[in-house]
Amino acid sequence: MKLIRYTQPNNAVCRPNRNGLESLFDGFDPFFAWPQPLHSNLHLSFDSREDKDNFYLQVEVPGFRREDLKLNVVDQVLTIQGRRKSWKDENAESTVERAINLPEQVDPEKISARVEDGILSITLPKREEVKPREIQIKLN
Q: What local confidence, expressed as pLDDT, does residue 46 receive?
């Protein structure tokens, strides 16, 4: 399975008020590393595939239970949201969100999903009018 991981760009917008002296310590002890937001390590990587009847998404959601996840479809945009308590600090929460533009061929009323072993599997059925159909050739 091929997974695509998003990494936050390393630029001045992401690291404000950074000077040359601070960057000297980046390659050494993590104690000196520039602090990152708590949620920056949570990314929703996914794999997609297609057959004649459906599109399929497999999304990595390690540590999230079914109750922690929510899927919405509005205007052909699938939004995956997750919220869970941190295992390190009971007062902290981890949240993730990813929006995916769906092809026009997808029938949003028939989307189904299940989660198992940290993988959220989403089936996106194609509309009947766009599915390929076989045409019978008649004899005269």
A: 87
| β partners of residue 96 | 82
Q: Give the C-alpha separation, 66 to 114, whole Å.
A: 8
For the chain, domain boundaries: 39-130
Cα R_g (the chain), whole angstroms: 21
The domain defined by 39-130 folds into: Immunoglobulin-like (2.60.40)
pLDDT digits (tens, 9 = 90+) for 9-36: 544 444 444 444 444 444 544 444 444 4
Separation of alpha carbons 108 and 40, rounded Å? 30
**How crowded is residue 107: how many other Cβ atoms within 10 Å of its Cβ?**
15
Gap between the Cα atoms of 127 and 133, Å rounded: 12
Give the CA angle between residues 53, 54, 57 to the nearest 5°. Answer: 165
